[in-house]
Specification:
By secondary structure, the chain is an alpha+beta fold. Strand 20 and strand 21 form a beta hairpin. Helix content is 24%, strand content 27%. Helix 2 packs antiparallel against helix 4 and helix 7 packs across helix 10. The two termini are 44 Å apart.
Length: 528
Amino acid sequence: MAQPFEGLPSTAWPLTKYGASIGGKDLLIYLDDPAAAPPDRARIFVQRSFKGRIAEPQIGGDPRVLVEVTGERSVWRATLPGPITTPVVSLQRDSGSMGQIDLYCTREVAQLPVATGWYSGAELLPRVPDDEAGLGIKSEVSPAELRCAKMTTGPVAKTWGVSSPAFEGFQMLTEPLAEATPLDGVVVKLVAKALPAPAPVTVVVKEPAWPQRDWCVADLMMTQPSVTLVLRPRPVVARANGSLSIEVVTGAPVDWLMGEGGCGLGLLKGDRDKIMPKHVADQLDFLREAFAETNEGHVFDYMAAQRGMWARLSRPAEALDELVPDNPTLMQLKRRLGWDKTPVVYPDPPNPGGAPEWALWQRECMIGAQRILHWLIDNRQVSNGEFGGVWGDDTDLVESWMGVWLASDDDDKIKNALRLLADGVWEYCLVEGVSASIRDALRSQGTARRRRGNHGIHGTHGRGRRGDGAVEASPPAPLLKGEGRTATAATPGPPRARPAGGTPCGPRYRQQPRRVCSPIDALMPCQP
């Protein structure tokens, strides 16, 4: 899964609130092991009408187009001309926005894999339990459509049935697992009493670690009364005492058979040593997103002890803490949440020159701050300048970078990153230096004031004004071209005059004898 064109290069969680870029045109998707299961299908969740193409990058030439994407509906699907065997595939965008892309393969298996613990339908639950798996079902299914079968590995009653109308279905909820179980996938068997015509079916398997998330979604056309699916999504470690929940929805009325010889599911256990690193990496990415969303709402300020109010962060974090309590990233999160208050021992830095203690620790703080900024630039900033939040929040992120830049930026890395962000703000957020949309005062003012050459403007709700009431804005500057931080200036256009008087302001990146500069221009000299 990927989160394309939203400025977040390493998250898999569909989140529309943060990082919605309007500048991304090309997304590179790196496949873990395409040789093991080369994908031959694509599915895209479309937020707004999306047009583009899926292509394979070529050395020394244009990418080879595999399929054109014309996503006019919520879900777009396509069969690729052949399996993808290269480790990188490109998603190019012409217009629109999207939330998720899945690349996968489908094939018939000669022999079903051995499933550990086969679950059969024991009874129709009169009430879905309020545990995590049950709440995952009830949060997405209306009460009138709840037809939840209790799935057990023990003896079951004779065959019984459950009827579902068109565009509804039934749910399966397993008994709690006795221990944390590494899973490579599941086997799902669907059995209908009769199937007079082909029926479209969607099978949604909830993630065992946190059932509010989808682990796997399978779409198929059921042409016979019985079908068995082998579903292998990203491997995961199911939480001890947790249940597995599955939802089945059909586009036609169906009478399903349960109990002996009816619908059922089995677990495909995997190698714990191979699954654990992938599981931990995925869960940490989910936790990063959940922490950002929860922290934005200042939840910890007034309901930190009420974990149920921010369960999307607390519950997965607790599950991961049961597996890898000493993971450094998780330990940082636990300290931020107040779960771990053990004092952290910081080693004394070397002091061969005998510098005063205050100078020693000031230097140590500066080195640490610079390391954080360099990491953000290397791992979060994309080619149009974004760092992973909406533009207004990105500009808030960098407002404290000036001191580090002035004190220790010999390679101009921080300065170039700020210039790249400022170019993006001007290109996508401002009209002649004024906010292009009506937003809250903080972000509307922040994007305008943090644009280089525009730091003399102060105002609220996008209204930048001088003391005499006239709107003043700096001339637009050419965007930096190129990828990453190895950028060069674009060809300058004709000079533009500052509307509020003063001497003409020549093309940016060219020294002028009497150039009217803002305070930030004085600190960031024009490139020759």
